[in-house]
Design a protein that fits this description.
With about 375 residues, the chain is of the alpha/beta class. Helix content is about 45%, strand content about 20%. It contains 14 helices and eleven strands. The structure holds nicotinamide-adenine-dinucleotide and zinc ion (ZN). The site of nicotinamide-adenine-dinucleotide has 27 residues, from helix 2, helix 4 and helix 5.
Length: about 375
């Protein structure tokens, strides 16, 4: 069993990581929750694969659980679904003492977390993430949100869970593409703050991609420690938390320009990390070669490191700056000084970045 403490004063909580934890899920939730009833938000896919395990784990500890499975997919992270779930909770008689359990990927985590943040002005919740991305990223840090038709994550709240339970065995039903997409965020954590972890990933890439339980639990623990450290020192994203955006300035633009769905988030972030590392070299910001080791590791993981030929570089750059304009102020981009150390820097002149991106367009389209 691996354990990470997220230090946030009286809102501190533990992240527990290990194979088979789902069997003890009820006993573990008992340690942080009073009450006998739980409201479980999940999606139909996760529920079909692992719902009975969760139910058994909860009932063993004497909980009665109301399951609310919704269809899978990003579209469900919306106000309409939030309202439906609130009505369901109210009809079931859940009051201020309710506990919400988020059982699924980042979509379920964000939606159920926001439900817990606003239901009766806030109830407690527990995260039981089931995707690699949710384990290393969205279940840690207390950011919750839903989308509106014109913008992702526009409505949300900071609301910390009472506990995060990560059973690495649940990840075995993920598609290889989902594993790769989550792995990109692990690489990011190594690059921004922990060179030793980056080296571990390089030396054990196969073990991670095969989801070998021992190494996977270790990698999740190290990665959560890094994110927990950033979140503890900057819960509301005033400063340090910005370095978590490494790879994301370019990555978000790639997602938007290629059309949502063309790239998985992690794939776009992989391309973004390579681009931003190359830019750090071009600007003389990096103290050592950074793009080679990053691109090498990402490509060993099966992640893309060049841009599809149909993605227009000018569109990428204008998307990044348009995004900046709506937020007011200058475009900041996170650049690595070296592997294990990164800083946000303002980028007023886009020409170097455009040149880097042009150099990353694939010469042939791979299938
Ligand atoms: N709150 C944060 O800090 C934060 C950080 C990063 C991302 N996010 C959010 O996370 C979301 C993306 O999360 P995601 O990639 O986990 O997507 P997701 O929740 O849509 O899950 C992806 C797919 O995997 C399926 N799935 C989940 N667990 C499975 C399992 N064990 N086996 C087989 N299939 C399984 C789901 O049914 C779904 O179809 C986005 O909405 C993003 O905005 C939030
Ligand atoms: Zn991300």
């Amino acid at each position: 069993l691996e354990r990470v403490r997220v230090d946030l004063g009286d809102r501190s909580y533990n992240i527990l990581i290990g194979p088979g934890l789902i069997q003890q899920v009820g006993c573990l939730i008992r340690t942080v929750c009073s009450g006998e009833r739980l409201f479980v938000v999940t999606d139909t896919r996760v529920n079909g694969l692992h719902g009975s395990l969760l139910r058994a784990g909860l009932e063993k500890a004497g909980f009665s659980a109301v399951f609310a499975p919704i269809p899978p997919g990003e579209k469900q992270k919306c106000l309409r679904r939030l309202e439906d779930l609130s009505v369901h909770m109210a009809q079931e008689g859940f009051d201020r003492g309710a506990t919400v359990v988020a059982f699924g990927g980042g979509v379920i985590g964000d939606l159920a977390g926001f439900l817990a943040a606003v239901y009766m002005r806030g109830v407690q919740y527990v995260q039981v993430p089931t995707t690699l991305l949710a384990c290393v990223d969205s279940s840690v840090g207390g950011k919750t949100a839903v989308n509106i038709p014109t913008a992702k994550n526009l409505l949300g709240a900071f609301h910390q869970p009472r506990l995060v339970i990560q059973d690495v065995n649940l990840l075995c039903t993920l598609s290889p593409r989902d594993v790769r997409a989550g792995a990109a965020e692990l690489v990011k954590h190594g690059v921004i703050l922990d060179r030793g972890f980056f080296d571990d990933l390089r030396a054990n890439t196969r073990r991670l991609m095969d989801l070998e339980p021992e190494f996977t639990a270790y990698a999740l623990r190290r990665s959560c420690e890094i994110k927990a450290r950033v979140v503890s020192s900057d819960e509301r994203e005033a400063g340090l938390r910005a370095i978590l955006n490494f790879g994301h300035t370019v990555g978000h633009a790639v997602e938007a320009v290629a059309g949502y769905g063309a790239y998985r988030h992690g794939e776009a972030v992989a391309i973004g990390m390579v681009a931003e590392a190359r830019l750090a070299e071009q600007m003389g910001f990096a103290r050592e070669p950074v793009s080679e080791p990053i691109a090498g590791l990402l490509s060993d993981m099966g992640l893309p490191i060049c841009l599809r030929a149909d993605v227009n570089v000018e569109d990428l750059v204008s998307t990044m700056y348009a995004d900046k304009k709506t937020r007011g102020g200058r475009l900041h981009i996170v650049l690595p000084r070296e592997i294990g150390c990164a800083e946000p820097v303002p980028l007023d002149d886009p020409s170097k970045l455009a040149a880097v991106l042009r150099g990353m367009v694939c010469s042939r389209v791979s299938h």
